[in-house]
């Protein structure tokens, strides 16, 4: 060792030890992360609401993501009253062509797979229901819930029935019930669904469903695959499930695709713009109205629209705007009535079983009618009220002649001097009564009856 060296023999450099520790920890984290990503697991999504383009896009992305992440299966927990036929067809196509098993689980207790939910459940590789759930009522109806009449009913019913049968046949399920669910709108409980081979399992929880489905053979991408769910548990027995969430865009679109939300946005837009136009400069109502209008138009691009309802809404808007130019209240009442009818018919189409809740429609419509009736009363009262300003407002008041010559002169009324004319001879100091006005700045007066008496 040199004379000036301070390193002691046999003691490692502290910097090297620190670097070695950091590298070891980083390597351990990488190994742990990679093992977690590759670990067998189930992907899970929750569909609670109507079937719409946002739902279809979410399921499509979830199937791709679950397959890319190496999930053994995608579990769709379903609770839906129905939705758009076009979106349902897209979802069914994605499930039938999925590269991994798709399990549709109608849950929790109290949930149901109505209308569009029937087709989605039938299309699953494994269909299951929780106790206290139901499935059925897939008969196509108009947006207001009423039956479709004429040739359109027969065509749509035949198409939907054959669509349901084809799915059931593909998955080896009860084709007879699948047809009856469409043609007769039958609905059954989970126990009946199991007995009739509509679903494969009845399970009270996802863990119970996994136990029942393990070992079951299903056809995935044209190949028979045995569901090996034994490896989806942690050492402590916990089920390894990764829940996938909608992206922000899908969440917003899913909210907007609710007919009630779309209807409320349209009404908010009309109210905000009406207040802004009738009271220029408030700004806030106009901003809220403009944003609501854009969101409502976005919703209308997603939902199937009945153009009769849309025309009625536009007519209602035009009539309400007419109140700005001819304030009477009658135009506003007509506009409110047109808006109510338009909202009732707006989503009344064969492609969907959606509608705006009638309670919301009647509440908003009633509010608009009350506002218009109040407006009519205010306008009527204003018309009946005696004018308070200008020459008309002075009719009947008593004044005094300030200067007079011939048939014209100056009179003082309420402390103001006015040019006046009269058919009676008058003199300075005479009390006069305003009988009317000639033009805007000249009064017509006569001798006051009180002074004559």
Q: What's the rounded overall pLDDT mean?
A: 81
Give me the secondary-structure category. alpha/beta
User: So what's the overall shape?
Assistant: elongated
Please outline the major beta sheet.
Answer: 6 strands, parallel
Please indicate the percent range of residues in DSSP E strands (runs of 2 or more): 15-25%
The helicity comes to 40-55%
- Span between termini: 140 Å
Radius of gyration: 38 Å
* CATH fold-level assignment of the largest domain: 2-enoyl-CoA Hydratase, Chain A, domain 1
Sum this structure up briefly.
With 453 residues, this protein is an alpha/beta fold. Helix content is 49%, strand content 17%. It has helices spanning 14-38, 53-68, 85-96, 116-123, 150-170, 175-183, 190-195, 206-213, 248-256, 259-278, 284-302, 307-325, 330-345, 358-384, 390-394, 449-452; strands at residues 42-48, 73-79, 102-106, 112-114, 126-129, 134-136, 187-189, 201-202, 217-220, 223-226, 241-243, 398-405, 408-413, 416-421, 431-438, 442-447.
